[in-house]
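Input record (one chain):
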Amino acid sequence: MLVDPQKVDFERQLSNLEALVTSLESGDLSLEDSLTCFEKG
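The corresponding structure, as predicted from the sequence alone:
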């Protein structure tokens, strides 16, 4: 069974975005780190 590379990439990016949101919501990041995360997302 072949896995669709676009689906894998989407799922990986979604996982990265969820981790970014969790980091931002935690409030443990400095302002500079928060802005960097915001720009990535």
